[in-house]
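Recall from the previous lesson that a structure prediction takes nothing but the amino acid sequence as input. Here we apply that procedure to Secreted/membrane protein from Thermobifida cellulosilytica TB100. The sequence below is the only information supplied.
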Amino acid sequence: MGEQLNIGTWFEIAEWSFFSLLALALLGLVAVIARRYALERGGGAVECYLRPVHGRRRPWRIGCGRYGTDELRWYRIFSLWPRPAVELPRRGLVVVGRRSPEGEELRELTDDLVVVEVGWTAPDGSDPKEPVYELAMSDAALTGFLSWLESLPPGVPWRDDDDE
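The prediction returns the following tokens.
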């Protein structure tokens, strides 16, 4: 007790701390890369940006959209969370508008992306007045998104029996 550490001991502690933090950072990077590989390996996934429209405009978040039978599941790229951050149900999902990135958006997006505004039909079947989300994706990804949106797998009814 009361014994002081010499400079060599402090250097050794700092060295071990540095290498421990470096190992943790590399482990985290490997985990993010492995998660992204797992999301994309099964097919039906596309890289796209997403942001909610309600309220004030929020920054774009890069992620991976994965097409399912009933919804588009959107995962953040730089996250280890196994569940999707956003699920966009397919039933009633419509494209409200399409445009190129403009103004301040070009700080976060490139000009070769297309911004698609999406929303859901109202209970009476009318088109939405305002978009709920914006997706930014390449032209090829947009073609796939629109194809997914307009098609249904075999055996899935377009409308429920109680809709008639």
